Fold:
Amino acid sequence: MIDKPRDYCGIFGVFDHSDASLLTYYGLHALQHRGQESAGIVTTYYDEKKRRSIMPMHKDFGLVLSVFDDSKIIENELIGRSAIGHNRYSTSGSSKNPANIQPFRVHYRNGNLAIGHNGNLSNARTLRERFREEGVLFQSTSDTELILHLISHSRKTNQMDQIMDALGQIEGAYCLVILTDDKLIAVRDPNGFRPLALGIIDGAYTVASETCAFDIIGAEYIRDVEPGEVIVIDREATTLQEPKSYSLEPKTGTGSSQCIFEYVYFSRPDSKIFGEMVDKIRRNLGKQLAKEHPLDEIIRFPNKDRRPIVISVPDSSNTAAIGYAHESQKAGHDCKYDIGLIRNHYVGRTFISPGQKSREQKVRTKFNTVRGVIEGRSVIIVDDSIVRGTTSRYLVDMIREANPLEIHFLVSSPPITHPCFYGMDFPSPEELIANKYDRNTEAIAKEIGVDSLRYLSAEGLVAAVKESNESKHGYCTACFTGNYPVPVDFGVEKEENEIV
Structure:
């Protein structure tokens, strides 16, 4: 596995469309980068013979293409005009437990209910202990199941009131798609950690973690779901009438705190999140990096015959590298952006070379150098982040073999020093290379084998994002600064007692 922070999850939903399950399938395919462990789709329809609503479901371990490899699943099983879907990467709950694959589907006193969740509940432990004391039995170890129990245990009589009652008791980072027998409900937590967008296709409303899911199906992006907003899409919600909207109040008074790492790494560059295109933000991060670390202060061995090259670690840092090169050229520094690393896009996450299980081999399987581009040049590597540093070391070793003049490493984010309790999966704090070397960039540079290492400052990161996005909302930088906008009861770590 390449040494990067693990993704969150991807969620998608569509209401009252003849191709609901097919649209959801394509939407999940576009959101595959947000989770590759499992995928699932739930639909709903009214069975005239049985005189009741039915919720078919299909989910399994694997990528979207493998989970739904038989067209009959979409055509014959997942019938109905409304659907929700989920791609999973486990940040809470075992990845090996089939009971943790989402969406979750239940039947309770008010009918059928299905839910897909992106993020983590920061008060999960408190809620779980409360339910255990009440004798509640759990089928999974995912914090998402807690939301279903809160809904079913609500003393409210109306289903929507039950859902709002449950939402009022959870804290943390979450976006939800909830499917009932007659509604699609989209929820974004009051702090707005996770992105969630509202779109429309053929008069039917749709929601997705990122707008790239709208592009693949030809849906029109309308707007973001606002922090703390609960959108209820039912038969009354048409192109002539907006869906109903409710508000959740933040419990901490900290205001909105959108995850800034979505812009740095997680989201696709062709997506619009938090009101702005990811590509635009990443280019600005590269420009800010060039302002903080000018090329003439980095290069040690100027070569008049071969100008320095700026290369990215594909694909997430491509646009940041372009931004750095362009800003450097604008400042009068002779350099060019070039492709020095080639990524093999056909390597699965579980690929193991026969007889070789080392991380180095996995890196070599995924990347290769372009020797003619690198040889004899000063090389500036731009990457979005460094976690443990092991992958960075192997990449640098590969580049060294191509005989460059010198290698410098630039990171378009600050050092990662703190764990994330809002849905992003990092190693333990002591495993983070920035902590291991007490943020000493010279020591880290020596460890990964480069001539110098430079990070974007935390202030520069926020400034670059705000310069490109004039959103009224703030950003969470906890993984860089340790400033947690929502209190954590440390109940979001993976549990040891798994049902497998």
